[in-house]
Structures are given as C-alpha cells and as structure tokens.
Amino acid sequence: MKKIVCVLQGDQFDCKIDKMFVESQIYRGLRGLVGTNNFLGEGFSWTLLRSQDEDPDPKTEVDKELLAEQNIKLSIALSVMQECFRPMIDPRTKVDVIAHALYNRG
Q1: 40 is a domain residue
Q2: Which residues of 27-46 are buried (b: 16+ CB within 10 A; e: fewer)?
Q3: Domain, as residue range, for 58
C-alpha cells in the first residue's frame, strides 16, 4: 500500500493512510528530539527525555549519572505541572494522569 491514498468522491476526499508508515514517521521524529535543547526565548527551553525503564539497573557510572539527572529533571517537571495545573484524576484508576503521562506509565 502507498503511504497515503486519497480519492475524490463528490465534494469530499476519502483517504486511506498506511498506519505503520505514520507511526514510524512519528517515532523517528520523536527520537530525533530526544536530549535536544529546544529554546523558546526569554531564557526558557524544553527537552524531550526518554524513559530508561528498559535498563532499570545501569551498569556504568555514566549511565547512573544520566539516570539520576533525568530523574531530577522529571521530578522538577512534575512539581511545575502540579503547581500550574489542577490534578487530573482518572475516575476508574484514581491516579493522577499528569504524573503518569510525565513518567510514561501508560
């Protein structure tokens, strides 16, 4: 299947999208942003961090330092989010959705 196929039907387009292609494009785009400082002006910036869950026991000192640095950044980010926004509690699980989204806990 081609990546995106659109057919004009009357006055509207009917489009079929290859989901695997779209998902791979999103994945590659996000992977390219990991660890990159993105400056917003006025001294603000944001960085996309990647969860280190796949290696919960870092082997080298550099891995341990990286994990500690990322955990500190995530903790600060959670504090800012909690200060700026009201909690979003999932009615079914009773957990704070903001914390789960920030720590990529599904």
Answers
A1: no
A2: eeeeeeeeeeeeeeeeeeee
A3: 49-106
